[in-house]
């Protein structure tokens, strides 16, 4: 039922975005690869998740901050969209188990490894740091991580961007899958992984910029 609901919401949302915007989707075939993986994206806008849902051919199981699950209506909607609550104030074993359950079912789990909204000099795209958790999840789940850059979502914070045929520009670019390096020194492996992921995100951002978004 949840996957059917997800597909229905994605179809409706995609129609809305396509009427009001002119998206640039780079390398969608990479996101269509079979099997489980972690989708790791930068996070500049509250609309990033919606744009990624519209652009990604696979169903994405998201993590959402636990505060969004406190209202009954939003909790029902998020659970119907296969989202799980994330408590950023403490280690959350329940969330980790939910992620691993999705991965073992062959699903895609979406993450914002910066941890919260970051734009400008704080963004990973401008040299900011990533949080450590995604390397650990990739290691435990034994899955690749697909880097992804989403840009232009902030425009939808202004109501004219939603007008039909306003042609708001936004972009999503998918990178090549990244695997945790084989290294008996797990700390060194995770550090190398984070460096590779950050570099991939910056490279994708440069690719989007060359299309004059």
Structural description of this entry:
- This protein has seven helices and seven strands, in the order αβαβαβαβαβαββα.
- It has one domain.
- The protein is an alpha/beta fold and 213 residues long.
- Helix 1 (2-20) crosses helix 3 (48-55).
- The relative contact order is 0.21.
- The N and C termini lie far apart (37 Å).
- It has a seven-stranded mixed beta sheet with strand order 1-7-6-2-5-3-4, sandwiched between helices.
- It has helices at residues 2-20, 28-31, 48-55, 72-80, 93-104, 133-141, 186-209, and strands spanning 21-26, 37-41, 60-65, 84-86, 108-111, 145-151, 168-174.
Assign a percent range to the helix content.
25-40%
Number of strands: 7
Please trace the helix and strand order, writing H or E for each element: HEHEHEHEHEHEEH
**Main beta-sheet strand count, sense and barrel state:** 7 strands, mixed
How many domain units?
1
The pLDDT mean sits at: 86
Contiguous uncertain segments of 5+ residues: none
What gap, in angstroms, lies between the N and C termini? 37 Å
- Beta-strand proportion: 15-25%
Number of helices in the DSSP assignment: 7
Radius of gyration: 17 Å
Q: What is the SS-derived class? A: alpha/beta
Major sheet: arrangement of strands = 1-7-6-2-5-3-4
Shape: globular
């Amino acid at each position: 039922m949840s996957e059917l609901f997800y597909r229905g919401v994605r179809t409706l949302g995609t129609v809305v975005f396509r009427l009001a915007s002119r998206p640039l989707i780079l390398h969608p075939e990479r996101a269509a690869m079979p099997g489980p993986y972690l989708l790791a994206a930068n996070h500049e806008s509250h609309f990033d998740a919606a744009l990624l849902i519209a652009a990604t051919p696979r169903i994405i199981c998201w993590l959402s901050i636990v505060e969004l699950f406190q209202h009954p209506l939003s909790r029902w909607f998020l659970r119907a969209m296969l989202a799980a609550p994330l408590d950023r104030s403490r280690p959350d074993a329940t969330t980790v188990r939910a992620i691993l359950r999705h991965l073992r079912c062959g699903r895609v789990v979406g993450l914002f490894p910066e941890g919260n909204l970051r734009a400008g000099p704080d963004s990973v795209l401008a040299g900011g740091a990533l949080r450590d958790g995604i390397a650990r999840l990739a290691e435990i789940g034994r899955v690749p991580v697909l880097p992804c850059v989403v840009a232009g979502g902030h425009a939808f914070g202004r109501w004219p961007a939603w007008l039909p045929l306003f042609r708001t520009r936004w972009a999503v670019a998918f990178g090549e899958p990244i695997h945790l390096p084989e290294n008996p020194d797990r700390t060194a492996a995770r550090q190398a992984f984070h460096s590779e992921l950050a570099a991939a995100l910056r490279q994708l951002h440069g690719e989007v910029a060359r299309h004059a978004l």
